[in-house]
Write a structure and sequence with these properties.
This protein has five helices and four strands; from the N terminus they run αβαβαββαα. The protein has 130 residues and is of the alpha+beta class.
Length: 130
């Protein structure tokens, strides 16, 4: 799933790159086939090509062996790619939940980050769109 080099098994944690450490953590989390998977910015230290590859593998795994996953991310494009439900936290109105398909329709051909700013503005988080 995480595409680590074979010699990574021989290395100490501090000898792995930040991205490799993130991938080891993901592998450890999935090893026992959990019923609930909590991922807090799991792709933060991963390069874009590896991130896309892990996204694809994670989606394939979900199709084969579904597991409820709570993914914390600040990347709206990533949320739309990986989640069925997206929750925007914060603001006076509290958490707001949206189904991925409704967000994709609302986004249209626009930028995912612009959509996130719009939703944050509606939720009372920050200043909203410029």
């Amino acid at each position: 799933l995480v595409d680590l080099p074979v010699d990574a098994l021989e290395r100490l944690p501090h000898e792995l790159s930040g991205g490799q450490q993130q991938r080891v953590g993901l592998c450890r989390a999935l090893f026992l086939h959990p019923g609930l998977l909590l991922l807090d910015e799991p792709f933060a230290a991963v390069d874009p090509l590896t991130r896309r590859d892990i996204h694809q593998r994670l989606l394939a795994l979900q199709a084969h062996e579904p597991v409820t996953t709570v993914l914390v991310t600040h990347d709206m494009a990533e949320a739309l790619r990986l989640a069925e439900e997206v929750v925007i936290l914060g603001g006076a109105g509290g958490p707001r939940a949206y189904h991925r398909d409704a967000l994709r329709l609302r986004q249209g051909d626009g930028d995912a980050e612009a959509l996130l700013l719009e939703l944050m503005g509606e939720a009372g988080v920050g200043g909203g769109p410029p």
